[in-house]
Specification:
The structure holds 2 protein chains of 2 kinds. Chain A is of the alpha/beta class. Chain A contains 8 helices and 12 strands. Chain A has one domain: 3-Layer(aba) Sandwich (Rossmann fold), CATH 3.40.50. In chain A, strands 6-9-10-3-11-12 form a 6-stranded mixed β-sheet, sandwiched between helices. In chain B, strands 1-4 form a two-stranded antiparallel ribbon. The chains are: A alpha/beta, B mainly alpha.
Chain lengths: 245, 313
């Protein structure tokens, strides 16, 4: 598979603190790629660069082989990269379809006036969720009434609505129970089946080994290694992250 | 059932009050009095509709009543000075809208909390009304066309009521059926999420506060035309009434959220209660006590809804 996203020699400092000291990342199209490392390893900073939240002091980002300049999250979205933050970025008291189409609502004309096309948004939301094998019947249900896994599904649907080809998921299973975590794992697998590239940031090694194809380990702001998860155990991965062989 | 009561409980209580006043308040049921209630509701509903827009984006506007007073004396002063009434109306609307725009700029540009910013503009507007009038009301025999804005009829319906209906319906349409309304709602509900979704949240707040000023201008023009006079603080009493109407509105239809239908019914209930208390011979101060109770009770109910939402996320 060809790389859909590459980051080369990324450096980023915040005052005297060097968060990234030359990090590399290569993500193949259609794979689930985990980004692991201890606290302060540079995962969050690297993701901020890729999602357009921060700009690198040095280094290049290529998407589909072309060098891109991601000055803000909108540039990243335009390049097909959507980030689902840990807080999911949802409006809990708004409806499912309103969250999925937030900021890019569908409209139709009535007597020359543009009005919201609620029916189309509900139908499309249902389609997005079906594509994820997620069962939610009432698109007018409020997000606050959904389970953690269902909320992840809504956040993913919004990313799909933006036509994202690369979805970055930041700690998607943090604070979720066992059943909800399994729901999220299924969603990630389903995204992969649909050809979407997923970058997963997680402290949970079981999740990483269970769902990722490859993993990049960061340490001290540098890329330590990038390896396949074939035959890798969570124990072995933990040891690699902590600096073992 | 619980959902039904949460959504429609306040409106049903309002209906019960209406029936109570029909039975026990002498003259309440007369067509002249009911029309009077509707007319009184007009000013309040228009002002409160504007405030609803500001609150929808999660910003307060404590200046709308004083901006209305300022717009009223500008309109009245210009007409009294011989300016063509239509120009004076435009000037009144412009002054109030500009006041709202200044509020919006202070909140989104200078980052002053809306509570403080609008308190400041309210004080400035109040000062300006006294500067313009010298403390004396503008009165006179004004153009009947201008007075017809509030006292005229359109197909047998008072123009005041027609204007109120138009303002409320347009506001309802904007908030419920358009992208702008959804973006304002998203801004108020989850600003960070809305911003990340590409919504111009600062612009939404600016629009919300500006619309609040614009609505104050409309109410001001109607007040002046209705009374054929313009005096400082002529809309001052509408501050607490307007806030009460919006907060009462937040306890119905979409509990915990400012909504135009709720605001309208809230304004109707408050005007009806004010009218009913007078007809029942209640002491004048009871109205203020009632408003205070409504404000506190409404916020308590809305707060419990909001708290529930916060805990469940």
């Amino acid at each position: 598979m060809s790389d859909i996203l590459t980051v080369r020699n990324a450096r980023k400092s915040y005052g005297a603190v060097k968060a990234l000291r030359g990090a590399d990342l290569s993500v193949a199209a259609g794979e689930v790629h985990a980004l692991c490392g201890d606290n302060g390893a540079g995962k969050s900073t690297l993701i901020k660069l890729v999602s357009g939240v921060e700009r690198p002091d040095e280094g290049d980002i290529h998407v589909r082989g072309e060098k891109v300049r991601l000055a803000n999250p909108h540039d990243a979205l335009a390049a097909g990269i959507a980030t689902i933050h840990q807080d999911l970025g949802l409006a809990p008291r708004m409806m499912i379809y309103q969250n999925i189409f937030m900021g890019s609502e569908l409209e139709r004309r009535v007597l020359g006036i543009k009005v919201l096309d609620r029916a189309a948004m509900i139908a499309r939301s249902q389609d997005f969720l079906i594509s994820l094998n997620s069962v939610m019947r009432d698109m007018t249900a409020k997000v606050e009434n959904l389970s953690g896994g269902q909320r992840q599904a809504v956040a993913i649907c919004r990313a799909l609505r933006w036509k994202a080809e690369i979805i970055i998921m930041d700690e998607p299973t943090a604070a979720l129970g066992v059943r909800e975590t399994e729901e999220v794992m299924k969603l990630i697998r389903r995204l992969k089946e649909n050809g979407v590239t997923v970058i997963l940031i997680s402290h949970n090694m079981h999740d990483v080994v269970a769902v990722a194809d490859r993993v990049t380990i960061l340490r001290g702001g540098r890329t330590e290694t990038s390896l396949s998860t074939d035959g890798l155990t969570s124990q072995a991965l933990s040891e690699r992250i902590m600096g073992g062989a | 059932m619980r959902d039904f009561i949460a959504k429609y409980g306040t409106a049903l209580a309002g209906l019960l009050v209406f029936v109570f006043l029909l039975v026990f308040a002498r003259n309440f049921a007369s067509s002249a009095n009911l029309l009077n209630v509707l007319k009184q509701t007009s000013f309040l509903a228009i002002l409160a509709t504007g405030f609803t827009f500001a609150l929808l984006t999660s910003e307060l506007d404590l200046s709308f009543a004083n901006l209305a007073s300022l717009a009223a004396v500008v309109t009245g002063g210009l007409i009294a000075g011989g300016t063509f009434w239509a120009l004076a109306v435009v000037a009144g609307l412009a002054v109030a809208t500009l006041g709202g725009l200044v509020n919006g700029f202070l909140v989104t540009g200078v980052k002053v909390p809306s509570l403080i910013a609008t308190l400041g503009t309210a004080a400035i507007a109040n000062g300006l009304t006294f500067m313009i009038t010298g403390g004396v009301a503008f009165v006179g025999r004004w153009d009947p066309m201008f007075l017809a804005l509030a006292r005229g009829e359109l197909f047998g319906i008072p123009v005041l009521v027609v204007v109120m209906a138009a303002v409320v319906l347009i506001a309802w349409f904007v908030t419920r059926k358009t992208r702008l309304g959804t973006h304002m709602l998203a801004t108020g509900e989850a600003q960070e999420a809305a911003h990340r979704a590409g919504i111009a949240t600062r612009r939404m707040k600016l629009i919300g506060l500006t619309l609040s000023g614009f609505a104050a201008g409309i109410a001001a023009v109607l007040l002046v035309a209705n009374l054929s006079s313009a005096s400082p603080q002529m809309a001052g009493d509408y501050l607490l009434n307007g806030i009460a109407a919006v907060l009462l509105g937040m306890t119905m239809f979409e509990p915990g959220r400012p909504n135009i239908a709720g605001t309208f019914v809230g304004a109707l209930i408050i005007s009806m209660l004010a009218n009913g208390l007078v007809l029942l011979g209640a002491p004048y101060y009871l109205q203020d006590i009632m408003l205070g109770v409504i404000v506190i009770a409404s916020v308590s109910v809305s707060a419990s809804v909001l708290k529930k939402a916060a805990f469940s996320v």
